Amino acid sequence: MKKEIRIFFTAMMFLTRLPVPQYTDHSQEYLEKSAKYFPLIGWLVAGISWLTYVVFSKYIGEDIAIIASIIAGILTTGAFHEDGFADCCDAFGGGWTKEKILTIMKDSRLGTFGVIGLISILSVKFLMLKEIPKFTPDLSAPSVNVFANYGQFLLLLLAAHGASRLMGVYTIRFYDYVTDIDASKAKPITSRKPSAGLLAVATIFALAPFALLDYRLSIAVIPMALTAWQANVYFKKWIGGYTGDCLGAIQQITEIVFYLSVIILWRYWL
């Protein structure tokens, strides 16, 4: 149990800026095993974002609450995934060969494609999150407990953040890592592919929130998986596999796809 707790804190240290116990380090052994807890780290980010939204929504306003929740998530992760998405926008937008793409991706400077990509995806995320609370069943008969009113919204955020991080774990499992692995911050988790058991544990964690939601909402995982698969096909075509930045891009894109899928399901089926 102590070992598993340490592995969990290793995942937290790798994916967020949240404080961890001093005994947590960058052990390659623990980093390799930490991928099974990536969905749980997504839960932490979702919980912080949700709590921020509820507080700001009650005392200030919904639009500001949504912006505040997005900022809270970014601060929690240190823009870890957003940075990867922006780097991919710059690299694949400005590079036409594998070498050029990888060179641009390693550049710490943010280019035009990255800026446009970030503005676009954050704008879409804002609009999606503004729509989702309108459909949550809790608001059909609101109570005096503001936290209870957004219980379904919390479950959806847990599902979105958990499942979108699961897509990255599957990428690590089934695709090859490219670029100079010795110089990569993702080396410890990509040097050895996750085992089938580790993948199963991560999948269970990611799908757990759906047990408390309408079972039909679990369909939203299908377009997420298809999107991640197509992204990996694209990455493999151009650079022969994936990089750490590609994992961040997959998380961001599939999170958006989840929100869109849920809104469509609510509008036309539920």
Q: Could you explain how this protein is built, in words?
A:
This protein has 270 residues and is mainly α. It has a domain at 82-268. It contains 13 helices and no strands. Helix 12 (221-239) packs antiparallel against helix 13. The longest helix has 25 residues, at 244-268.
Please report the distance between the alpha carbons of the first and last residues.
41 Å
The arrangement of helices and strands along the chain is HHHHHHHHHHHHH
Tally of helical segments: 13
Q: How would you name the oligomeric state of the polypeptide chains in this document?
A: single chain
Give the overall silhouette: globular
Helix content: over 70%
Low-confidence stretches: none
Major beta-sheet overview: none
Mean pLDDT reading: 90
Q: How many β-strands, per DSSP?
A: 0
Q: What class do helices, strands and sheet pairing give?
A: mainly alpha
Radius of gyration: 18 Å
Quote the beta fraction. Answer: under 5%
Supply database-style keywords:
single chain; 270 residues; mainly alpha; 13 helices; globular
